[in-house]
Amino acid sequence: MLRTRICDLLKIDHPVVLGGMASGTNPALVAAVTGCGGLGILGVTFMTPEQQRADAGRIRELTRGPFGLNHLLAFATEDRYAATLEARPRVVSTAWAWADQDLRPYFDRAHEAGALVMHMVSTVPEAVRAVGAGADIVVAQGTEGGGHVGWISTLPLVPQVVRAIEPVPVLAAGGIADGAGLAAALALGAEGVLIGTRFLATPEAPVPAGYKQAILASDGHNTLLTEVADIAFGLVWPGAMSRVARNRFVERWAGREWEVRQRRHEVARQLRAARERDDAEELNLQMGQAAGLITEIAPAARIVREIVAQAEQIIRDRLPSLLAD
Ligand SMILES: Cc1cc2nc3c(=O)[nH]c(=O)nc-3n(C[C@H](O)[C@H](O)[C@H](O)COP(=O)(O)O)c2cc1C
After folding, report:
1. What separation in Å is there between the alpha carbon of 266 and the centre of ligand 1?
2. Mutation test of ligand 1: which of 16, 17, 18, 21 has the most ligand atoms closer than 8 Å to its C-beta?
3. For the chain, which terminal residue's Cβ has fewer other Cβ atoms within 10 angstroms, N or C?
4. Which atom of ligand 1 is nearest to the CA of 19?
5. What is the average per-residue pLDDT within 45-52?
6. Please, what sign has the CA dihedral across residues 254, 76, 45, 303?
7. Which residues make beta-bridge pairs with 247?
8. Range 221-249 average pLDDT
């Protein structure tokens, strides 16, 4: 069985983590990933304290295993962060802090609440900064990932981060959706993977059916980086653009960001309405290039099991067979 240091640290069976997607996770998905031996993380950035309490309670009804709660630090508020700590998750997962935001108080408070801190970065200096502030695990996320990403790919980013912060364990994220991706991440020096897009194409994921179908339909070539939806929702990100599928909504607004700023309430209303009526051409379809690897909607637990089994098979059979005597 595949075991890495992250399995021991998190007390999980498989080195596979569900990314804490604010717009793509719910208790059912988190519990499904945790329940089959991975680590589920719930995105709670925009949840009220009451919602967080209810969702953490629901996860505990569904599984006895460890789980994480995720905050996008650029948008963290005191009441919501305090509610996260009160919920006593095994992992406090964080990402996207402002350059001048002090990480130390967030991480210290998480440790005092008995949690491990997992921080996601998209550059080497961010990784060094996170470890300096006390992070226990660093997620190195490449630009091919879904949602908000930086500018360097997973393949060159992960080994650089591993080297820079050794012996702190690193998870690879961005572009991983199958066992070959997990095996590759381990070869790069990561202790496991954190996955977003693959887990959106599950029955459990709380995104519209048309969104899931758009992931299946994508060959991975039709994504681009844009700020259009962020501008409409009034969210200024610390240096990140969002990787989304090119659809009618993006075609209409990309390059006309000034006009989105001018009409942002109207555009935000249209995006929410598109979600209500499940219109994939008018939705903000955050997804990564790994969509090209995804061909079916499958239960999250099966995805975890298949990724691990494929990775084991590659490591056990294919790779040794390549070594000449
Ligand atoms: C719809 C969507 C929403 C996301 N929201 C968050 C979030 O709230 N917090 C976070 O740390 N990462 C978020 N991410 C990034 C994921 O945690 C993960 O790093 C990324 O999906 C990895 O790339 P992949 O999509 O190729 O697996 C999001 C990703 C997607 C696709």
Report:
1. 26
2. 21
3. C
4. 17
5. 98
6. positive
7. none
8. 97
Query: In this structure, are strands 241-245 and 223-226 parallel, antiparallel, or unpaired?
Result: antiparallel
- Pair 149, 280 in one domain: no
Report d(CA 114, CA 105) in Å as an integer.
14
Q: How buried is residue 294: exposed, middle or buried, by Cβ count under 10 Å (0-12/13-18/19+)?
A: buried
Give how many domains the chain has, as a whole number: 2
**Ligand 1 atom 20: the closest Cα is on which residue?**
196
- How far is ligand 1, taken at its centre, from the CA of residue 149, in Å? 8
**What atom in ligand 1 is closest to the CA of residue 177?**
27
**Quick one: pLDDT at residue 167?**
98
- Asked if 177 and 118 sit in the same domain, the reply is yes
Supply the range of the domain harboring residue 190.
5-206+300-321
Which pTM was predicted? 0.98
294 occurs within a structural domain? no
Measure 141 CA to ligand 1 centroid, in angstroms: 9
Q: Is any ligand 1 atom within 6 A of the Cβ of residue 290?
A: yes
Q: Model confidence at 325, in pLDDT bands (50, 70, 90)?
A: confident
154 and 224, same domain (yes or no):
no
Does residue 295 lie within any of the structural domains? Answer: no
Closest CA to 39 of 94, 89, 79: 89
Do residue 117 and residue 235 come from a single domain?
no
pLDDT in tens, 6-17: 999 999 999 999
Helix (H) or strand (E) holding 8: helix 5-10
Say whether pLDDT at 125 is over 80.
Answer: yes
pLDDT at site 324:
83
129-165 pLDDT tens trace = 999 999 999 999 999 999 999 999 999 999 999 999 9
